[in-house]
């Protein structure tokens, strides 16, 4: 049963797609304990007080001036944000406020590979995984002090997997503002008759809204209907010029072409271009199939049979065969036995190209509201002189960043990455424009870019690289910025939510750290903040690039636990001596892929 309210249904749909639970945001007090929970207030400005207070704070910063989308179309909303004066005054009084110029001064890090002795539990985890120290980079710093307490291979360029999302989301929040909103607009070049039939084309122009799900798109459909259009006797034309054509419908990252994490960016991204099928077996031998979102051209051929017996192994019935049919229809075929004991199962399948998926979703909602359509669909530009019919504003960027980081959503991150390039330069967006814009922001923020390589901003790449030291600098800068609370709240809380909800659930660090994870084949990564038991907050980053990285998750968990116990005190005690490089050992499953 779906929730009643539109916002709840939107979260429910994304939860089904990601198989994760949407939590409330949490924040920490400077004492290191979890202080409470607070959802992002989308109607107010955001506090500049750092969630992890340090010995100094920085002044406010505002985004660059607004650029226009196309000559006659206003850009999606981007509101300059400043810190509340009272909050800043309190922070400066309590924390000994330092001058912004001093805070922005580029930190001169000490030579890395000096304090390189890892905690005993971390070393043991690496040894069990047969991961050599040369494949590991680690940085641990106090929040507000960029001098590492622990650093191993900290300046070595590494594949970060999804911890690269920290760079993209911090840059996006700082450059666009937490209140930035994407716009999806409808235009027409025809006339509406007395019966409400539009004799002409209906144009839908997208700007890359990463969260245009059914509960959002229906708002645009209803606004078009309220404008007096009941039917369309013309074409549905999709204007996708906000992103360069070279950025759309790209080859999959790996051979799992139907995996939602492989979906690329698009100006009219709809429901992550993925169908969510829920299978429900019944004692009468039938299996019902529910699908979200509805597509006008989609038909389901259901030959599933509910059977007895145990639920074990891979079920071929979970894999529909999706094929195009005559007349533009798309058939999803299911066949096979489905054990009753398996209960409800949901499978997510990325299918079709972006334009076909959006058009199918739009027309399904259009017809559900009683609208008629007698034309064709195609891509094209909104002509000069076309009449604006309706505008839908998507969620605020603060909400988008929450979903990107909590649940490691690659597609949303890639849309944000390209949006930065389109807004800071001019449409159409390209990866090169976006990379240059983010690098310029980092340089202006005294953040190193020497070993930073950006390809799509999500970390789903073998070409993206960054050093652990750079990620630590990003975390330090973000925590001292006007977007600190929004940024930190977006990271998974250890043992509570997001990609960390099932890790360290019975350890004292549970609920006391915000950690972004990263997972690819041969890559494991963590980066975030730990509010330790000693009352001090720390930045922790660790990247592992090795064929046996998958087996080293326990080492990362041990590192987080060690930081929670208070690394400054622990460093004065006896730590493990470096162990001999372990002999190579093949991975148990060399074909397994990660997505976060």
TrEMBL record:
GO MF, one annotated term: serine-type carboxypeptidase activity
InterPro entries: Beta-lactam/transpept-like (IPR012338), Peptidase_S13 (IPR000667)
Presence of the UniProt keyword Coiled coil in the record: no
Disordered: annotated span: 52-78, 573-596
Domain of life the protein comes from: Bacteria
Comp. bias (Polar residues): 58-68
Keywords: Hydrolase
One Pfam family hit: Peptidase_S13
Basic residues biased stretches: 585-596
Listed GO biological process terms: peptidoglycan metabolic process; proteolysis
Record SUPFAM superfamilies: beta-lactamase/transpeptidase-like (SSF56601)
Similarity remark: Belongs to the peptidase S13 family.
Name assigned to this protein: Serine-type D-Ala-D-Ala carboxypeptidase
Organism in which the protein naturally occurs: Paraburkholderia solisilvae
